[in-house]
Amino acid sequence: MPSATQVKDYLLSLQQNIVATLENLDGHSFRLDQWQREEGGGGISRLVEEGGVIERGGVNFSHVLGKTLPPSATAHRPELAGRAWEAMGVSLVIHPRNPYVPTVHMNVRLFRAYAEGHDDVFWFGGGMDLTPYYGFEEDAVHFHQTCFEAVQRFGAKYYPEFKAWCDRYFFLKHRNEPRGIGGLFFDDLSELGFEGGFAFIKAVGDAFLDAYVPILERRREYQYGERERDWQAYRRGRYVEFNLVWDRGTLFGLQSGGRTESILMSMPPIVKWRYDWHAPAGSPEARLHTDFLIGKDWLGKAGVA
Hints:
By secondary structure, this protein is of the alpha+beta class. Helix content is 40%, strand content 25%.
């Protein structure tokens, strides 16, 4: 049976593999920033800014420990309040410069809570999701097809359940709109056991480059101007709003005394807000809302193994 040490080894290798691939595509090296956490543990942050393709992107590994679970971690599990905890994972966000290349997020993690006199409680979580600024059906289908293929061997239910969970989770309730076109999201996954849960996050983590790199390569040379960059900056504002208002990972990191620079590396470098503004009807920008940010079943076969 695999151990937490094996999970950690996998996560470190996943980070290295993704960074090496993105460095090759971008042409710039990622900064290496190793850090320690006073309460326990630490991490390795890998970041690039003003790269050849990536305007700002980070691929972070963390393994942190704490004496008491913060409120964000026990909101859905009040019986765990007061327990010590351990969390490890890889989390990444890539914000490309070209507005025709979508932003992407991926995260895989293991969480363990423990207390004397009680059995350890563990669960796995993670997923990946795509946030385009201009919609391409080919890209949406490819991303979701890769997600589907990554998890179908675990059972027919997982893609449709976790696709629907992703659509619900990455949703800006205060604006009544999705952040992007989704993908997979899951948390509290323990029903597969430790070995099965570990295999599941490996399948998701290993599928990331297959899901995203072909899209990046397909769109990176598209020509764009001030209009497209302006729209990108406006839509990036939605990304910031979600991460600061709704994202459980951001809240957990800040509430648990996490490293602020690493937690907020997900923020895009250039963002704009406008008061009560909407894209002109019938424009490519408006089509993002009407045709893509709609929680669509991109495969037309959700749940078919």
